[in-house]
Each structure stands twice: as C-alpha cells, then as structure tokens.
Amino acid sequence: MHETAIVRGLMRILEQKAAESGIRRIVSVRLKVGRLRGLESRQLRGCFALFAEDTLAEGAQLIIEEVPVQAHCPACDRSWVAAAYRLQCPGCGGTEAEIQTGRELYIESFEGERACPKDRTPAGASPFGRRHRITTL
Q1: Would you place residue 84 in the very low, low, confident or very high pLDDT band (cuts 50, 70, 90)?
Q2: Sign (positive/negative) of CA torsion 55, 58, 60, 61?
Q3: Residue 47, annotated as binding a ligand
C-alpha cells in the first residue's frame, strides 16, 4: 500500500507550506492524481485522516481530482482520453502513443486559517482568522 508513503510525504509538504504561510489550521486540501498512478481514493482518504490526527490538518477535507489519461498519436496526430492502460490509437491503430496527462500527483492547493493574536481575538470568537487559499505549491 504505497498510499501510506505518499500521504506521509503529503503531510510533510503541507506542514512546511503552512508554516511558511502562517497557517495554523488546514481546512481542505485539493490533490491532483493521474489515473496512471494506480492510487485508490478511499485508501488515500483513510491514510490522510489517520496521518492528520493531532496535526494542523486534523479534520481537513481531502478533495481528490482524478486526472484522466490523455494520449496523442504522432502517426495520425489524434488525441484521445484513453482507458488507463490502453494506449492504442482509436484512429489508426498505432501503438506509439505519447502520454500527455495521467501521471500527475501533486497538491494543487490547500485552504487554511491563520491564527489571530490572542489579544486581538474578540470574546467568543474563533481563535482563527480568515481562511486563506494557498495555490503556489
């Protein structure tokens, strides 16, 4: 189950980027995963929930966007969305397809809250400030 290793790395990246951005709590994470990666969304979510316990990402929503396999045939110049491991050109039957998408695995963005200084937090208000989306990962 390589989802565990991937989520462990994901958490390290999130903690580093959150610290750089002054984020004290992560609310949601948007992850792009290509179909050719062979990762199971349910297992990713389960691992994420487990690794996020007692961290700034505890309770955060993991949004997984699956990226289809887009292929291109150099022989007939046709592009198509391919079944994960079927890369035969539907136009000419060629087998020299170039994979254009489907290998992705990256954090597209995450949303978090910056901590408010304690002396400026109104009575009864959340100790967290506005939500901020971080997209440059």
Answers
A1: low
A2: positive
A3: no
